[in-house]
Structure formats: structure tokens, C-alpha cells
Amino acid sequence: MGKLIRSAIVMLLLMTVITGVAYPLVVTGVAQVLFPSQANGSLIDREGKPIGSTLIGQSFDDPKYFWGRPSATSPQPNNALSSSGSNLGPTNPALTDAVKQRIEALRAVDPGNTAAVPVDLVTASASGLDPEISPAAAAYQVSRVARLRGMSESQVRSMVIMATTGRQFGMLGEARVNVLKLNLALDGR
Predict the structure, then answer these.
(1) From CA 11, how far away is CA 167, in angstroms rounded?
(2) DSSP state of 59
(3) For the segment 149-183, what is each residue's pLDDT rounded down to a tens digit?
């Protein structure tokens, strides 16, 4: 019996070292060499300081910025530690009320815009952290951003086009616009 226990303990220690230390170190080292930006969180730096990640949504509520998808995380929006959807179904009155409030907020900052509000501007993603919006959601906001920044709509529209990423491999997913990158490009102009 003692031999079996000793063998089990040795195997536990060996597997702990292999799977808990060696493997993570090798994978981290390979990732740092081959994909350094992604391995470090796809951070965006400005003047040597990280200001956000291209992978996690940022909250913008100033009307001169493009707004991203609403976040369902708590206690604050875009909280990566509590990534989750709202779990509100389509017949839930709380979801209906939240969507109505978001539409009212969009209409309040741009009362002249009578276009239909794209769904991704009023509903949270499954993770609650989506950093991107559809090109339609960006196009909906072009006139407001252009007016408040003193730019022409064509200038802002061309910046949206430059910030648009197509489908992966030309067939996977949908075209998308990273809100943080677009807003930083506008600020840098």
C-alpha cells in the first residue's frame, strides 16, 4: 500500500510540474515570440501608457465620439472581470425598457437623425465586452460626430471606412469597426 501511495504522490508532483509550470511557460514563451501584441492583451499605448485594448469595449458617452455597444457587465460597463450577457430574453420587459432608453439617448444627442437605429447600438453582446460595432452602426453616428467635431460627413465617413475590418479570410464573421481605434484616429486628426 505504501508503494502505491508513494507512486501516486510522485505522479501528482510530476504532472503538477509538467502541466502547471512547464507547459504554461513554454506556451507563454512561444506566444511572446510569435504574437507579442496579442500575448500582452492587444493593448493600445499613447505616450508610453496603455489606454485600452482592441479586444475589450470602452465606454464613450461624449456625443463627439462614436459610441460602442452597450455593456451588460457590472458594477461598471466593460468590466472584464464580470464578462457576461444580461440574460434577458426577447420578451423580458426589462430588455424592452433598456432598449427604449438607449434609443431615446441616441435620439437625444442627434435629434435630426431619423434613420432606424442599428440593433448593435441598443443591445449588449453575449460577453458584454464587444469592442466593435457594425459599419451600419458607425454610419448611423457619422452626422453627429462630424457636426460636433466641425468636420465634413465625407471626412468622417472615410475614417470609418479606413477603420473597418472586413470578414476574416473573406468569409468568416461580418465587417466591423473597432470603436476605440476609430475614436483615437478622430482625436489624432
Answers:
(1) 47
(2) -
(3) 999 999 999 999 999 988 888 889 898 999 999 99
